[in-house]
Amino acid sequence: MTSILKSNKLQNVCYEIRGPVPERARQMEEEGQRIIKLNIGNLAPFGFDAPEEVVQDVIRNLPNAAGYVDSKGLFQARKAIMHYTQAKNIADVTVDDIYIGNGASELIVMAMQGLLNDGDEVLVPMPDYPLWTAAVSLAGGTPRHYLCDEANEWYPSLDDIRSKITDKTKAIVIINPNNPTGALYPDSLLKDIIQIAREHSLIIYADEIYDKVLYDGAEHTSIASLANDILFVTFNGLSKNYRACGFRSGWMFVSGNKKIAKDYIEGLNILATMRLCANVPAQYAIQTALGGYQSINDLVKPTGRLAKQRDLAYQLLTAIPGVSCVKPRAALYMFPKLDPAIYPISDDQQFILELLQEEKVLLVQGTGFNWQQPDHFRVVFLPNLDDLTDAIARIARFLENYRKR
Ligand code: PLP
């Protein structure tokens, strides 16, 4: 019998966050070993509960949630999202401009499927949240990675962005606050990116799913609030700000120069209707989440659990010889660098696998985020202070042995 092959469309599609190393971790757990997981931004298993009122709203509305709803989502939920866009100073977003999906992930894939023809190019950050690269590739597009500069707070390099634009470039993706670097972009930088998009007629896709996970009193500006003359598609959801990753509830909205995008918007509508609608019970959570008590603020204030874990992880990691790191100002991640002169790593997936096997700590290698050199890894600082201390001590021990090899 001939073997059954996956589609050619998947040729350049990969997603290492759930790749072979976490699969090995799963096997080790099945064998009874305890793994400390610093590999995935999934809050609930680490005791970060979704707000109680949000959970109760889903439970209360479950009996009403058995039918399909509008393909773009429940009206009351989209109305709440509309108010949120107003609070973020984004002009002229109507209920009709908002699409609710099974997490932002579904909508990211949808937005790329609706836009790209074979060979079209999209500027994607490097490092990136790899779903973006995968979604562009799956849609037949070519991801062109622009550099985020570690020497400059991991901010996007405008020169590099400009150098990667061709006559096939359709759009630029901005992940702000950033996964995996924890960077938060200043307004001046956002305006400079808008200017580039303006000059080259690019759509701006803004992934802002961590826009409330901000430390040190920082504030977040939605890039879509800074211009009306280009098209923006902005993504957000309940997964991170409201610790409800498993609800699979996210949204996107179009704003800015919608007039030039009528055909594209029609395409998005077709794609939204094809899958009928997003999971309905979770849509009932949106209004209460956005309008309710913003308990994330208690977690990110200096004495809050997330802020304390960020501070400890940063302090312990940067104390390891040959490890440097830009301190994250937002989100749940750090992207430390291993000095190649001290740690001559040629295959960072192998490095991460050996760490897992020797020390039972699970990380994701930097190349999993489309970083080109094997000299970074991502740390998720969700485990509690004791587990973080333990995990980073194990990483330090592993690195010390690695140096002696
Ligand atoms: N965008 C970024 C930057 C993320 O880090 C994630 C999840 O980790 C997502 C999107 C996907 O979010 P959702 O759970 O809404 O699908």
Topology at a glance:
Elements: H1 20-30, E1 36-37, H2 52-61, H3 75-87, E2 98-101, H4 103-115, E3 121-126, H5 131-138, E4 142-149, E5 155-156, H6 158-163, E6 169-175, H7 187-199, E7 203-207, E8 231-237, E9 250-256, H8 262-274, H9 280-291, H10 296-300, H11 305-318, E10 323-324, E11 333-334, E12 337-338, H12 348-359, E13 361-362, E14 364-365, E15 377-380, H13 385-404
Parallel strand pairs: 1-13, 3-4, 3-6, 6-7, 7-8
Antiparallel strand pairs: 2-9, 4-5, 8-9, 10-12, 11-15, 14-15
Helix pairs in contact: 2-9, 3-9, 4-5, 4-8, 11-13
Bound molecules: pyridoxal-5'-phosphate.
GO molecular function, one term: pyridoxal phosphate binding
Keywords: Aminotransferase, Pyridoxal phosphate, Transferase
Protein name: Glutamate-pyruvate aminotransferase AlaA
In brief:
This protein has 405 residues and is α/β, with parallel strands linked by helices. It has 13 helices and 15 strands.
Q: What does this 3D model show about the protein?
A:
- The protein has 405 residues and is an alpha/beta fold.
- Helices cover 37% and strands 15% of the residues.
- An eight-stranded mixed β-sheet has the order 2-9-8-7-6-3-4-5. It has a three-stranded antiparallel β-sheet with strand order 11-15-14. A two-stranded parallel ribbon has the order 1-13.
- The longest helix is centred in the C-terminal third of the chain and has 20 residues, at 385-404.
- The termini are far apart.
- The chain binds pyridoxal-5'-phosphate.
- Its cofactor is pyridoxal 5'-phosphate.
- One of its GO terms (molecular function) is L-alanine:2-oxoglutarate aminotransferase activity.
